[in-house]
Amino acid sequence: MSTPLIKEFTYNAPIEKVWRALTVQDSLKKWYFPQLQKFEPIVGFKFEFDDDSAEYQKEWIVTKVAEGKTFAHSWAYKGYSGISEVIFDLFAEGNKTRLRVTQTDLESFPNDRHFARERFEWGWDNLLGQNLKHLLEDGNNS
CA–CA separation, 51 vs 83, rounded Å? Predict the structure, then answer.
């Protein structure tokens, strides 16, 4: 049985600002993946990344866009079995925004420490709990 990884973060920023950080290419490069070369928040759009010869090349496709509320994409790696989905849900809480990230089907990846649940948990804490928080709250993404 699949147990999704779910984490929540609250930002001192209005929901519109958080939405832009999730769906604008230049913002995504700042907090998510600097290797991102091409992105559009359109269902079916395939992210394009620098081919940096890394062992784990990402293959992501936008799976859901609900303006100001939900953004989701698949998460897979070239040459490896398994596919996950990452879902970002936004909730306005006054002048703050709560973001819930849900990552599904982590057990579909190979039994390898690179794909361990703990690595994804650490990754979201770093990406959303630090990188995105700094971008939103330090005035770098108006």
Answer: 20
- Per the DSSP assignment, residues forming a β-bridge with 72 are 64, 87
Q: Which of the four pLDDT bands, split at 50, 70 and 90, describes residue 139?
A: low
pLDDT at 56: 86
Count Cβ atoms within 10 A of the Cβ of residue 41 and give its class: 0-12 exposed, 13-18 middle, 19 or more buried: middle
Residue 28: predicted pLDDT: 96
Residue 142 in domain = no
**Using CA atoms, how far apart are residues 135 and 118, in angstroms rounded to an integer?**
24
Cβ count within 10 A of residue 57: 16
Total of domains in the chain:
1
Best CA proximity match to 7, nearest among 88, 107, 109: 88
Question: From the CA atom positions of the chain, what is the Rg in Å?
Answer: 15
CB 85 within 8 A of CB 73: yes
